[in-house]
Amino acid sequence: MQTTTWLGGAGVAALLLAGPAVAQTELNVFVSSQHQPEVMRKAFDRFEAANPEVKVKIQTGGNTSELQSQYLNTVLSAEDPSLDVFILDIIRPAQFAAAGWTVPLDEAVGDKQALLASYLPAYAEANQVDGKLVALPAFADAMFLYYRKDLLEKHGLAVPKTWTELAEIAKKVQAAENDPKLQGVSFQGKAIEGANCTFLLPYWSMGKELVTNGKLSLDKDAAARSFQTWLDLVGAGVAKKNIAEVATDDTRKEFQAGNALFAVLWSYGWAHFQGPESAVKDKVGVAVLPAVEGGQSVSCIGGWQWGVSAYSENPEEATRLVRFMSSPETSKLLAIDGALLPVFPALYEDPDVLKAAPWFKDALPVVQTARARPVTPRYNEVSEIIRTSVNAVLAGTTPPEGAVSQMEARLRRVLR
User: What architecture does CATH give domain 12-141+303-362?
Assistant: First the structure.
């Protein structure tokens, strides 16, 4: 919405001395309340300083990806021009583009190929739909293997490279520590978004694709092996029996309380693990995720993207803001002041960034192995099918082979 504000001094004399009035464009930007709006405000202030004719106002809301999506769906379905720019979970750009809710950014970014080459590759992939650039990355995220450095060092054990090694190491430590509360590994088995990554981590590790060119390309043997990988951890006592009830923040709490040797979790956990209430402060390491035997380490990508509303009355200014917010300079600010992972590989070696967040040096190998979840306008349906299948297997209500058959049939109806 464009509004006009008369800029000048506090009094009439100052106003006269200020010269001609300047018309300001007001941009309304939706930022999740979980994404440190106060840090985003610093970046917006920098943009305003370089673009004095533009004023940026923040709207906040939604503590989860689902709540944020519900709000944006409501606003954009109504073709409401009250929002100019919004932040999106990495799983959303294809959906929003298919609905016609975002402005293509190809022409606005200049040399698109050069720009995309500067980002971590997974973000270039996730933000393009049918060859069109529909969003720009804000900051990165990925699933990490968090581990107890103190316990591995105490027992002379190395960070595992495979899930089989993780199970063997965990059983040794659990036996030696003789602590009934100590789990070998915590991960997400509840029917939530994180359970999709639970399935995909071993599956991708075998070099398999789930969706190719919008069509289902499920490898049933690999899918069954992926389910079995997690079941084996439960059967060995490495993961707890009620893992089907564990959500994302449950994993964070369990590891932070010192009740897990390993945890599969997003980057937000690090700040909690180093906080004053943490039982594992200064005892935590991060590493790439284990692979299946004979496979390659893969992580599940997260992160957030900037989109421009198709109903914005200020598309030129909104696009300029998004380009600024997805620049190396802004990415560096977010890394230093907010510990938000950069989308530019070079920043993981930047001295200023590493001074503020030394653990980023270990984060780069993880984000470089990260892959985007299926890029499809029907991702909500794909997600629901996968996560409920994972939950059914881990709850013991469906065997792996049966879950694969059911999942394939359901996915085939969606991805025709």
Answer: 3-Layer(aba) Sandwich (3.40)
